[in-house]
Amino acid sequence: MKFRQLILFIFFTYNAGGQAIFKYEQKINRTDNLALEELSFFNAEDNLQLAGTLIYPKEGFEKLIIIIPGSGKDTRHSHYRLAEYFLEQGIAVCRFDDRGIGKSTGKFDDMASSLTSDVVCIFQGLKEKKGMSNKKIGVLGHSLGGIASIGAYAEACYFDFLIQMATPVENKGAFLKYQATSMEGGWSKVKHKTSAEVLNFLDELANIISLEDDFKTTKQKAKPIIKQMDFKKGRHIVNPVIVDLMKQAHEKTYKNCSVPVLYIIGSEDLHVSSQHELMVLERLNNHNIETKLIQNVDHYLTEKQDPRYEINPKAVEEIIKWTWEL
User: Fold this and answer.
1) What is the three-class DSSP state of 239?
2) Which has the closest alpha carbon to 86: 284, 324, 275?
3) What span, in angstroms and rounded, lies between the C-alpha atoms of 146 and 129?
4) Predicted pLDDT at 25
5) How many CB atoms lie within 10 A of CB 316?
6) CA of 277: how far to CAs of 62, 245, 265, in Å?
7) How far apart are alpha carbons 3 and 261 in whole angstroms?
8) Alpha helices of the chain — where are they, by DSSP H?
9) What's the Rg (C-alpha) of the chain?
10) Which residues of the chain are modeled with pLDDT < 50?
11) What pLDDT score does 2 carry?
12) For the chain: N or C, fewer Cβ within 10 A?
């Protein structure tokens, strides 16, 4: 299905045996000064159980960061390098298996709204956990994870700080249009249609989407547009993931956010436009938001030759320094 290529929909198989882990993930290097605690969170809204791990320095910690990965299937072993860097600085880390993945129950999907619901559940669970009342709890959201984290903040998950990494900011899934031009041949490719025609179709689709409508209603509303624009071969674009992304509207939340936010993105990101998103944040003029543009790195803040999660040293320095100085 073409829409599964959205953002970086690359799937790999599980390793055999034990805790599920994907080929692009790794277990972090455990040391004697670290403690590991298995966690479970019940998402009552969607009736599922989320499994995760809290790793923290045995001598104690003041800050805890929840790492929320982007689209595609992820376990608690994602963003292992960032987890290691935080732990080296005495900052505790919480990660979890996506719904329907690893030890988490439910059915996996790539919906921003689903991930937001899970982030709300995890944050609330951590806040209620014994010994957490005096800890600063923040979140690092990458891409789709960033959308979910700002969405959770809008739902009264008042994190003490947010790190938004390569996260779409502009309302109505505007970043999808950027992907349609920067990633030709991907999910947005429609036979016999130019990029300009696809962009027009995305605009028309975004205009009919309402927060109150379910997907079935939206699909019905899209039929006249598909017919009028002769987009029968582009019907795959009208799918639950894209419709859900177009429903995301968090500019107001960013504008009114009252806690420290670090927004960091790479200049060579083909999935989210650094230029567009930084312009939006500048226009919102919230002095609680600090922005960082890292040159010559991609959507994962890595250089072209490096594997996923091997984050660029400059990006690491900016993230760790900002978090440490809070």
Assistant:
1) coil
2) 324
3) 24
4) 94
5) 17
6) 31, 15, 9
7) 30
8) 80-88, 112-128, 144-154, 175-182, 195-208, 215-228, 240-246, 251-256, 274-284, 313-324
9) 19
10) 1-18
11) 41
12) N
- Phi, then psi, of 177 in degrees rounded to 5: -70, -35
For residue 134, what are the contacts with CB-CB under 8 A and spacing of at least 6?
Answer: none
Give which of 319, 301, 6, 72 is closest to 166, Cα–Cα. Answer: 301
User: In this predicted model, what pLDDT tens digit does every residue of 166-215 receive, in sequence order?
Assistant: 999 999 999 999 999 998 778 999 999 999 999 999 999 999 999 999 99
With CA atoms as reference, report the closest residue to 146 among 49, 55, 254.
Answer: 254
Contact 47, 99 (CB under 8 A): no
Residue with tokens 């996506």: 98
Q: Which residues of 261-298 are buried (b: 16+ CB within 10 A; e: fewer)?
A: bbbbbbebbebbbbebbbebbeebeeeebeebebeebb
pLDDT on residue 8: 33
pLDDT given for residue 228 in this prediction: 97
Tokens matching residue 90: 């005495």
Residue labelled with tokens 């045995």: 58
Residue 64: which region, alpha, beta or left (left: phi > 0; alpha: psi -120 to 50)?
A: beta
Residues 6+ apart with CB under 8 A from 88: none
- First CA to last CA distance, the chain: 43
Global pTM?
A: 0.93
pLDDT at 19: 57
The neighbour count for residue 186, using CB atoms within 10 Å, is: 17
